[in-house]
Amino acid sequence: MTTMQMIRVFGMKDREDGGNPAPVWLDADAMSADDMLAQARRSGHESVFVLKPADAAHALRLRYFVPRHEMEMCGHATVAALWLLHERGEWDGSATTIETLSGTVRGRFVDGMVEISQPSAVMHRVDDVLVAEIAACLRIAVGDIRGPVVNSCTSRVKTLIPLDAATLAGLQVDLPRVESLCEKLGSTGLYPYALVAGETATASARQFPKSSGYPEDPATGIAAAALAWGLRQRGAVGDAGVLVTVRQGEAMGSPSEIFVRLPAADAASQDCWLRGDARPMLADADRRLDAVAPRDEVTRARPSGHYASLSRAGDMLYTSGVVGRENGRIITGRLEGPGDVSNGQRAAMAAVRSLLHAVQHELGSLGQVRRVVALNGYLAASAGFTDHVQVMDAASKLLREVFPDSALPVRTTVGVSSLPGGGMVEVSMVLELQAP
């Protein structure tokens, strides 16, 4: 089943609002190029689609789309895809090879971060006539440009424009001119930057893309790699191996931090390594679930026999029944009378938490859920037990906490003589998903 999860990449570790969102579509082999473009348009972000490789030399294939077209390569989306595969246990973090339209990209997991390779940049200086046009487009004087303007390319050409920090922060770009100017430059984006005073190998930058469908980009990995090589050519970072830090998105209120590990100038391999923080972009429902059911305290529902935990049909998602567990152990016993209601409620809520985490894992986010349509409860109860409603009301209340704006689901509750593993309560659900 094709699933999508939003990953925020290159954010600062102490902030939730930074970085660049990347929709990652897993198992996307059945999607056409038109499907992928349509999804990128709906999201408004650079999107990555994970497919099986075309040959045995690669472990996977990635395709990248912005709202207007397909791209050869996208750094932050590649980091997002590998991070998600690692998080889901589908990649162990060892060195891997990725097929892209820009060529083979290598990936690895080092010190808690995904790193991807980029080749040594090809660079050439932009002539003065075009520099004057760049200044006009940025609405600054030519004299505000603090050094040579360079086209630098690892996977995609970026135009590096050195400024001072105040000029960079105050840019008021003539956005309608960016596309035609980039066409003249043979570039995919203007990348003005300023060295950060008092910090080693650190720059701030802003990206104005040629034709992505949005005016400015909060974090651009490929441009940061191109800039790192440009800083070496400029003599700003020396010839030893160095970790270059590029800050971006500050003017947009989405501060980002991108790291580029440059090799020593005389190293045999001239690839650099691009890295940065990655984490899920949580929907409100995900945050509410984490508040009532922290991930490390819940055993996610998994099949214990020859069946699937979840099955999707169109916009509907059906779950199998799950018995309530605590600390990985089934909550066992029978409901005999009113004194057992609290134990039944505990088991019912544990089962719902387990199912919601399974749904979250499958879909990438509970933000993909429109509503819970049906809730079914099966209670191991004696013939004289009559408090079924009170037991399952606790499960309904939990769903209301996670999805407070949704209508209550329909519900069926039955008493049974026994449940798998001696469980006390088993729960299943039917959910309606958001339209793609």
Automatic annotation (TrEMBL):
Q: Give the GO molecular function terms.
A: isomerase activity
Query: Which superkingdom does the taxonomy of this entry point to?
Result: Bacteria
Q: Which InterPro entries match?
A: Endoribo_LPSP/chorism_mut-like, Phenazine_PhzF-like, RutC-like_sf, YjgF/YER057c/UK114
The record's keywords, sorted A to Z, are:
Isomerase
Question: CDD domains attached here?
Answer: YjgF_YER057c_UK114_like_1
Does this UniProt record's set of keywords contain Translocase? Answer: no
- What Pfam families does UniProt report for this protein, alphabetically? PhzC-PhzF, Ribonuc_L-PSP
Name this protein carries in UniProt: PhzF family phenazine biosynthesis isomerase
